[in-house]
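Reply to dn_fold:

You asked what the input looked like. This is it:
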Amino acid sequence: MTSPVRFTELAGWTPQPYRSVFVWVAFEERLVATGERYGPDDHAGVWTADGFLSRWSSRLVDQGWEWMAPLIRRLADGEDPEHVRTDALHEYAARHDGAEPNVTIWNLGVDRLR
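and this is what came back:
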């Protein structure tokens, strides 16, 4: 069974004109979505916060988004997701002239991801 999951679009970069990468966070569910658009190919995945940190976090540092890793670590460590979300939105706004990040809703079978 699927349910709507709210992902906050915190990071995205385009290392080449035909390639883009994103990292989105679902705070309440403690999930991180990642994806790459590479020419005609698209790849996306959803990770637990801990799984993301062990596989993808170095890419944040490579692109100047290292501020996200401690926030995702807090989710992985069980901290209140609403507190982490509030801090993440503050950090994002400070780096984007006060703007709020976009939100995407994906219908997912969350129980299968944990």
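The longest helix spans residues 81-95.
Hope that clears it up.
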